Amino acid sequence: MKKNTSAENCWEYMDCPDDKKSECPAYLTETGFECWKTAGDESDFDSKKCDKIEVGKHCTDCPWYKKKAINILVVDDEKMNLLVTKRMLSQNGYEIITTCTSGEEAVELIKNNDFNLALLDIQMHGIDGYETCRRLKEVKPGLYAIMLTGTVNNESIKKSYKAGAMDFVRKQFDNMELIVRVENAIKIMSTEKALQHSHKTIFEKNAILEKLLITDNLTQVFNRKYILENLSTHMYSSKRYKHPISLMMLDIDRFKLINDNYGHLAGDEAIILLASILSSNIRKTDLVGRYGGDEFILVLPNTNISGAIKKAEQLRKNVESNIFKMAPKVNVTISIGVCELSNETDPDSLINKADELLYQAKENGRNRIEYKA
Ligand code: GH3
Ligand code: MG
Q1: How far is the CA of 255 from the centre of ligand 2 (A)?
Q2: Of 302, 338, 332, which Cα lies nearest the Cα of 317?
């Protein structure tokens, strides 16, 4: 079994689930991709070419078959032309074909049909092919339109492109020109689809990376770097707009004992639980970050010292009354240093102020807060 890389050109390849991809004969065998040519016409099927395919059962799951599932609209006011075009397409494996004899009808049809490709006659009664193309693309900008024209001249080429058509084909249905152009259209659309898919993937991965860059791995609250960067912006705006801003530094009391008595994993669990208590008890505009180890930092914009003291006391009580539901259960308390920004000009000096207050809280017996305006 050999991967056939041509399967990657498949119309449905990007949307094809991985388990289906691996079942796909085009993907697994060298010759399997031939099967789409005979899909729907089992009598022609050369089963020797693909050892994965059972005649009559294979095609609907095969992406190469779905390649032909492209939804085509053909518009021409000459019924005979429609018949010829339709036959030409179906002889080459294209099965989903809708025909109509006027531009007006086409515009109505596209409102309820997911056409991928439109083949449009230029000279028609009512609105002409150019206007039809323009209106169809208004409804579905991604539609790939090919103009069918009796005579190719600069004027018609210019008008076709201006109307949003991607290509045009001379009306000479005795050759393969139309089919080649349709095949090319599919390749272009598949490539666009693949590009959109990779853009989406890159966008999603970037969002994940951005989140990782600012998040503390253990607790999922902000990391120290992010808090420090944001603290300076908040300090600046607090001075500029004369709004108060307060800061808390808090730390688990005797955390080493938890690690020593119950192990490092239980210690981690305590840090995680504390982070979730903090996050769920602050305003959306407040920031909570892990400063390091068992130490957290809280930035409270638009909050003066008396508001911050109330909040700190509430958090302290909340942690004290919360029996950490770890195995075994542990009583955890925290000490907090609380301060408001006064004449400090950089984040470090404000953090030092809160840190000194935290140190005092530890000195004064733990499970308490110390504050300074
Ligand atoms: P104090 O009341 O004075 O704060 O006492 P303490 O024992 O909590 O002392 P300190 O805050 O200095 O203890 C920090 C300890 O936290 C030291 C280190 O072993 C531990 N630690 C740091 N990071 C982690 C971590 O990610 N997980 C765990 N389980 N322990 C950590
Ligand atoms: Mg501690």
Answers
A1: 5
A2: 332
